[in-house]
């Protein structure tokens, strides 16, 4: 049997056909009609699912269920999107709408939770029954796995670790508060701090790199400048890593998961990001050195995590 995973984003819809072992047999994508509402989006999902099945040579009859990962607050019991700030959906019965097009059970979950579930299956570690996955992207996404299952709280919307407080009255956050972890640890925050540093230090390599890119930094700019020996790039990079590490220490102190995974585009920095975070955690986690330590790793699946996790929502 196969499982169909749908990763719904603000700019694109990705669909994959996933086998029992978590391998993606076929996948495709298309732009999201984000402002046209859930009916149009459900139609596009169904169209894309049909296209992927045709490409793979398999049929709906060979599939067990459809899983949809969606940004925002989700009623995972009833397949309803309470609210998504990136897509025009509010109290949207997306599962029922997709079922109008394809006669399969449909499960819906938060996209970060789906990515966490996908990464959890990829761990293939029977000793790891608890895990937290953190995605460093436009925001800070997160998903909590306890006893092999996504933890969503009583109302389906738990796990928003990016909106825990790092700095009271600090940087503005998209959620309306100031000082959230997301406002410091996201790729968006890193880009903001890199561009600020470029303006403050116009003679630095960071400033030159930003100017050569039309006045815009990327998530790689500070890391690249650091590798080239630029002191300003090193300072921005080190500050960013400390912000990420502070949040991870809080996660460990609160939940004590077997594993914390770091994903998102910034995670491609690999050991340049991972090793100083581990060092920071080894120093500052409560009871460090006296109790078994949480294993901090880089996530494996990259952009495919959401597809795999969504596919396995019903599994």
How many whole angstroms does the radius of gyration measure?
A: 20 Å
Order of helices and strands: EEEHEEEEHEHEEEHHHHHEHEH
Q: For the largest beta sheet, what order do the strands appear in spatially?
A: 3-2-1-4-8
How large is the share of residues in beta strands?
Answer: 15-25%
Number of E-state strands: 13
- Alpha-beta classification: alpha/beta
Q: Name the helicity range.
A: 25-40%
Mean pLDDT level:
95
Major β-sheet annotation: 5 strands, mixed
Unreliable stretches, pLDDT < 50, 5 or more residues?
none
Shape: globular
What does this structure look like?
The chain has helices spanning 38-56, 94-99, 111-123, 182-185, 187-200, 205-212, 221-227, 231-255, 271-284, 305-311; strands at residues 2-8, 12-18, 24-31, 63-70, 73-75, 80-84, 89-92, 106-110, 130-136, 140-146, 149-150, 259-263, 295-298. It has 315 residues and is of the alpha/beta class. Strands 3-2-1-4-8 form a 5-stranded mixed beta sheet. The protein has a 5-stranded mixed beta sheet with strand order 11-10-9-12-13, sandwiched between helices. A 3-stranded antiparallel beta sheet has the order 5-6-7. It is globular and about 60 Å long. The model has no long low-confidence stretch (mean pLDDT 95).
SSE blueprint and pairings:
Elements: E1 2-8, E2 12-18, E3 24-31, H1 38-56, E4 63-70, E5 73-75, E6 80-84, E7 89-92, H2 94-99, E8 106-110, H3 111-123, E9 130-136, E10 140-146, E11 149-150, H4 182-185, H5 187-200, H6 205-212, H7 221-227, H8 231-255, E12 259-263, H9 271-284, E13 295-298, H10 305-311
């Amino acid at each position: 049997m196969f499982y169909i995973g749908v990763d719904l984003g603000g700019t694109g819809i990705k669909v994959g056909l996933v086998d029992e072992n978590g391998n993606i047999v076929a996948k495709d994508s298309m732009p999201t009609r984000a402002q046209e509402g859930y009916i149009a989006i459900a139609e596009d999902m169904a169209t894309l699912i049909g296209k992927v099945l045709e490409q793979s040579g398999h049929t709906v009859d060979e599939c067990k269920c459809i899983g949809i990962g969606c940004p925002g607050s989700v009623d995972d019991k009833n397949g309803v999107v309470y609210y998504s700030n990136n897509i025009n959906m509010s109290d949207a019965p997306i599962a029922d709408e997709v079922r109008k097009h394809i006669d399969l059970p449909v499960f819906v979950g938060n996209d970060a939770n789906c990515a966490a579930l996908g990464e959890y299956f990829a761990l293939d570690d029977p000793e790891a029954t608890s895990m937290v996955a953190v995605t460093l992207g436009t925001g800070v996404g997160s998903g909590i796995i306890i006893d092999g299952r996504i933890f969503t709280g009583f109302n389906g919307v738990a796990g928003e670790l990016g909106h825990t407080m790092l700095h009271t009255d600090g940087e503005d956050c998209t959620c309306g508060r100031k000082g959230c972890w997301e406002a410091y640890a996201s790729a968006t925050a890193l880009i903001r701090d890199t561009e600020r540093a470029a303006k403050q230090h116009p003679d630095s390599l960071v400033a030159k790199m930003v100017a050569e890119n039309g006045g815009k930094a990327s998530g790689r700019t500070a890391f690249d400048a650091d590798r080239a020996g630029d002191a300003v790039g090193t300072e921005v990079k080190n500050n960013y890593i400390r912000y990420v590490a502070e949040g991870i220490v809080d996660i460990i102190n609160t939940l004590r998961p077997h594993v914390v995974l770091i994903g998102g585009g910034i995670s491609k920095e690999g050991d340049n990001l991972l090793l100083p975070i581990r060092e920071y955690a080894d120093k500052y986690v409560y009871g460090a050195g006296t109790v078994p330590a949480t294993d901090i790793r880089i996530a494996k699946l990259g952009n495919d995590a959401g597809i795999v996790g969504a596919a396995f929502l019903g599994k």
